[in-house]
Automatic annotation (TrEMBL):
Residues 146-324 form the O-methyltransferase C-terminal domain. InterPro entries: COMT-like, COMT_C, COMT_dimerisation, SAM-dependent_MTases_sf, WH-like_DNA-bd_sf, WH_DNA-bd_sf. GO terms for molecular function: O-methyltransferase activity; protein dimerization activity. This is Methyltransferase domain-containing protein. SUPFAM superfamilies: S-adenosyl-L-methionine-dependent methyltransferases, Winged helix' DNA-binding domain. GO terms for biological process: methylation. Residues 25-100 form the O-methyltransferase dimerisation domain. Keywords: Methyltransferase, S-adenosyl-L-methionine, Transferase. It comes from the Bacteria.
């Protein structure tokens, strides 16, 4: 008898929709995320950054059990984050680019945030759906937002770098920029670094000053970028900025979007440019997939007050009502994110 066994055929189906595989893929999704997160915790990708190593070599540097570590490394090979050649493992190109501790553009802080505290917040999703209010995280919401801001900084910086290349905006014609509610000012720092004529103000709550100023210093832009304490919803009326950035702020302030846009437009000069980046839904409210799940993330974190569906058509109409013209939207090949540009009428 063949010890490999006999492969069973596909489940009989008339409609082609009886397979439980899609259900199982989603239900076991945490298997893959835990495999990645554990490898990050053990600094596997950092250890392999210098070149291929055996399980024994990785175990010696990480402090892991060799047998258990082999299972973890092979799982990450299955996910595409590692590659195995004989008894040696090496990083995938993406892992070298984003999962190495301390490297420029590293996503390590973001990946760790997904487990702590975000995974715990999502575990309370059922109660949040029942009550409409999110439970206060153990570390406090302010601290959660600071950790989140640090984790997303490199991704937001990379996104703005890409936008500067693909959007039809002549950034070199602007000199005064306002970054509203982005916590770390990633977008403003990226543009200020690329365009030396830009002077930028980061407007946010006082709790983000220390973090924002850390990133300002790390990019050596203290002379042209400064943090100003205030409420982002209010903007800086009468300041006559050339360019205003709203980076993933409207989805967090869904219930007060009109107020936010009013503060923004009062902060701009005539014909000034607004650049928004957001997870925006189509009118179906279920596409793109990442935007639909991000909406659920906002619900899990903040409760139902800011969990309304933010659609492309709704935002377009809201911008026009607020006094913007030439509204344009570009869907980006970046995890379901949309870029929106508009001018003050």
């Amino acid at each position: 008898m063949n010890q490999m066994g006999r492969a069973a055929g596909p489940l009989p189906s008339v409609s082609g929709r009886r397979s439980p595989v899609p259900i199982l893929q989603v239900a076991t999704g945490f298997w893959a995320s835990q495999a990645l997160l554990t490898a990050v915790d053990l600094k596997v990708f950092t250890i392999l950054f210098g070149g291929p190593k055996t399980v024994a070599e990785v175990a010696k540097e990480s402090g892991g059990d060799p047998v258990a570590l082999e299972a973890l490394l092979d799982a990450n090979c299955a996910l595409g984050f590692l590659h195995r050649n004989g008894d040696r493992y090496r990083n995938d190109e993406a892992s070298n680019g984003y999962l190495v501790e301390g490297s420029p553009g590293s996503y390590v802080d973001l990946v760790r945030f997904m487990r702590d505290p975000l995974f715990g917040i999502w575990q309370g999703l059922a109660d949040t759906v029942r009550r409409g209010t999110a439970a206060e995280p153990s570390m406090g919401m302010d601290q959660v937002e600071i950790v989140l801001a640090r984790g997303f900084h490199n991704g937001a910086y990379a996104l703005m770098s890409r936008l500067a290349e693909i959007l039809d905006i002549e950034f070199s014609t602007y000199s005064r920029m306002l970054d509203v509610g982005s916590h770390t000012g990633a977008g403003a720092l990226c543009l200020a670094r690329r365009y030396p004529q830009l002077q930028a103000t980061l407007l946010d709550r006082p709790i983000f000053r220390e973090l924002a100023e850390e990133f300002i210093r790390s990019t050596k832009l203290e002379e042209r970028v400064h943090f100003e304490e205030g409420h982002p919803d209010e903007g800086k009326p009468g300041a006559e900025y050339d360019l205003v950035l709203l980076s993933h702020y409207l989805s967090r302030r869904r219930a007060d979007m009109g107020k936010v846009l009013e503060g923004v437009i009062q902060s701009m000069r005539r014909d000034g440019k607004l650049l928004v980046t957001e997870f925006l839904l189509e009118d179906s409210k279920s596409e793109p997939r990442e935007a639909a799940l991000f909406r659920l993330n906002v619900l899990a974190t903040y409760g139902s007050g800011n969990a309304g569906a933010l659609t492309r058509s709704e935002l377009c109409q809201s911008l026009e009502r607020a006094g913007f013209k030439d509204v344009d939207m570009v869907g980006l090949p970046m995890f379901g994110i949309t870029a929106i540009t508009a001018c003050k009428a």
